[in-house]
Design a protein that fits this description.
By secondary structure, the protein is an all-alpha fold. It is built from 6 helices and no strands. Helices cover 81% and strands 0% of the residues. It starts with a helix and ends with a helix.
Length: 104
């Protein structure tokens, strides 16, 4: 369960997305994920990194999505978590690649 502060920030994230403020949403994703990582809540952070990247890809915010995924990989390395096919969120990555391909 999210703390009161994290729950409030998650609501702010939802409002940013609804308003089309994807830069703000990207920054909020990083903030919340950093909190989760510091608390060693790696599963929660991973879920948010992947869902955030997927959402940002769906709005053609590919640079922001890539940064979230790069930060996820760094988290795995720092925590000694072995990446697996399941953890990699390949559905999200392939979605992102399809999004990029459709732009050209």
């Amino acid at each position: 369960m999210a703390s009161v502060g994290t729950a409030k920030t998650l609501r702010k994230l939802e409002r940013s997305i609804e308003a089309g403020d994807y830069y703000g949403a990207h920054q909020i994703y990083l903030t919340i994920c950093t909190r989760y990582v510091k608390l060693r809540k790696y599963d929660e952070a991973q879920h948010l990194f992947v869902s955030g990247a997927k959402l940002l890809c769906s709005h053609s915010q590919l640079g922001s999505a890539l940064e979230l995924l790069e930060t996820l990989i760094q988290m795995w390395e720092d925590a000694g978590i072995e990446p697996s096919t399941e953890r990699l969120g390949l559905g999200c990555l392939s979605y992102g690649f399809r999004s990029v391909a459709s732009m050209y």
